[in-house]
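Help!! Second protein's tokens look totally different from the first
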Amino acid sequence: MPDLESRYVGCMLGMAIGDALGGPTEFMSFESIRKTWPPGGVTDFCSFRGLPAGSYTDDTEMALAVARGILGASSLDVTAILDAIAGEFVRWYENVDWARSPGTTCTGSVAKLVEGEHWTASGRNDSMGCGTAMRAPPVGLAFAPDRDLLREVAARQSLITHGHDVATAGSVAVALMVAEAVQGAHPDDLLAIVRDSVAEISDVFLEALDRVPPAVELGNTAQAHSLLGPGWTADEAVAGALHALTMHPTSYRDAVLEAANSGGDTDTKACIVGAVLGASLGVGGIPDVWRQHVEDGELLVETGRELLLYVRRHFGI
């Protein structure tokens, strides 16, 4: 069994590696991915949009901003944490790399922060986008010992950019999946856990989760991924990730490649899968060649370690 440090570091590395594998296939259909990389899609890092192979996208950029905000907050006070996260989002926006395809809802909402709007109002929109789910893994790591605090931080960090309850449910779901995985839950159990966690937040999200079992029965097929949806909304992204996790609960490689080749918002789905299985399997479950060549590998390792120290300092474990 991996120790806690291996799980925390594995989550951060796994998140970025999944993101980097899904970056080249983002915006493509299930069929076009297989025409471009026959027969089954990408199997390794590829360059994309002028970025070198192993580069991550805005998903990991924003997740690192969330991590920096949590680590830089003055206390466990939720307002202090959200103030710090909002500040990190502003710093991210001021140096945004458009080649990494940041979402328009995220950039538009953070632009309001730059203009002086408070984070409690910047995300007043009706977006169901997955931009909140993709950046939630550090919330799951930091607050795994306190599920009430986890839910509150996950929900409110979502509202900085996205106003719809589906987006809120996505952030809570991913943070909870990571927390459960880092504490030893088996990936097979995550669908039921997530379903219970979002039942009072969004009926639409529940409908997406209920499509996961029939999609699993269809396997890795165009029909399965059509049933789940492309993943641009938070409910579809989490459902797509849970499909890959259920299909390959003990194989990091197979699960992230399943998500990376599923079509649509592939980087987000693979990012979520990578974070969860990295937390579940630890560093040793991730292929060494990917760990060696992912962008900012040392930073990701150090961030995982710092989040574990944060937990030990505040929660005494």
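Here's the second one for comparison:
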Amino acid sequence: MSVTLSKKAEQFVESEVAAGHVDSTADVIDQALELYQLRRQYFEKQLIEGIEDADAGRLRSYSPQVLEDIKQNALKKMAARKTLA
């Protein structure tokens, strides 16, 4: 598979590797995809729960903090997995 990145994304990936935050460009892509998968799974779970809550008459307000919470939880999970690897 071949992936074409924008110049800005390419520079970011290169700077992360150069800084030693990751071992390779593939690591950056792997971590990005893992975060994407975790975020998608969370949203799917939330959607199902939201439909169930609406059907049961339980409604919740959305908060911008939700996305930040997803991000932080995903980063914690990724860090824990990397520690185990």
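Reply: Different proteins will give different token patterns, so don't panic. The CA atoms of residues 2 and 62 lie 38 Å apart.
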